[in-house]
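Saturday, quiet lab. Running sequence design on the structure tokens for the scaffold JK sent over.
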């Protein structure tokens, strides 16, 4: 890929398909030169061939640790700023950060406002030059005042969640009916949480619609900390199309979610 002189170069090293889609899509609004790697070896090759820029490095990769890649490239003389991303922040000690020149360790899933704050900080320091290309907080277009209603059939796997997120990439407000969904794996649950966290950082919302108390209870146990679990797609469809403001949409979901919790507690 040819670098634009007025645009920074980014290397995103991430093997999670959902996080890769969402983060790469955001970075591409800052720069025309965004490279992606999923393994340590791919990362070394991509980093060696890119102009000076910013590296966003996942800690755990299929063939090793992201910090090993940073160490190898520092030994080759690369001084690019590095931001590490991990669900295990305690494994990257301050001493390792100093030794490898890692600017920051961000907890996954990485929220858009946190990432933007880091990029803004790099630009102010003169480390990263965006040429005034910094994007706005939200997607380039979305259906204001409406939810994208989707129905899920089959297993909730990480890759299937990633494909669904990609299909609904322009939507901020997603209501996902999972009453026909099959079993979920750990990557599927993690993908739903990452998608919900990303939408929340954009000012949107992801909610899962469950029709039975058993399914609602299971969903709340697995993803309730990140994802709204509601009980009525019909209520969303009837009301959401008439709402025009972000706060109104949030209040609607709060109402439906709290209603579901009251029903569960009363039962």
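Result came back. Writing it out in full:
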């Amino acid at each position: 890929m040819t670098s634009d002189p007025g645009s920074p170069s980014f290397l995103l090293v991430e093997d999670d398909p959902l996080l890769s889609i969402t983060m790469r899509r955001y970075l591409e609004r800052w720069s025309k030169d965004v490279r992606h790697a999923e393994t340590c070896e791919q990362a070394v090759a991509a980093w060696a061939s890119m102009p000076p820029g910013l590296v966003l490095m996942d800690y755990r990769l299929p063939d090793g640790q992201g910090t090993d890649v940073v160490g190898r490239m520092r030994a080759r003389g690369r001084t690019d700023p590095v931001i590490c991303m991990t669900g295990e922040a305690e494994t990257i000690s301050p001493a390792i950060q100093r030794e490898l020149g890692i600017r920051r360790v961000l907890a996954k899933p990485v929220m858009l406002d946190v990432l933007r704050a880091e990029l803004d900080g790099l630009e102010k320091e003169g480390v990263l030059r965006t040429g005034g290309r910094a994007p706005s907080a939200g997607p380039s277009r979305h259906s204001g005042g409406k939810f994208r209603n989707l129905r899920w059939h089959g297993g909730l796997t990480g890759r299937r969640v990633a494909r669904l997120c990609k299909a609904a990439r322009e939507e901020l407000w997603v209501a996902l009916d999972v009453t026909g969904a099959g079993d979920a794996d750990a990557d599927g649950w993690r993908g739903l949480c990452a998608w919900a966290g990303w939408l929340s950082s954009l000012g949107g919302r992801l909610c899962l619609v469950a029709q039975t108390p058993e399914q609602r209870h299971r969903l709340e146990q697995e993803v309730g900390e990140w994802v709204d679990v509601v009980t009525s797609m019909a209520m969303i469809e009837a009301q959401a199309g008439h709402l025009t403001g972000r706060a109104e949409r949030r209040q609607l979901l709060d109402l439906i979610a709290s209603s579901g919790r009251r029903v569960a507690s009363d039962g």
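Notes for JK: The longest strand covers residues 173-184. The CA atoms of residues 65 and 100 lie 13 Å apart. Ask whether to fix the surface positions before the next round.
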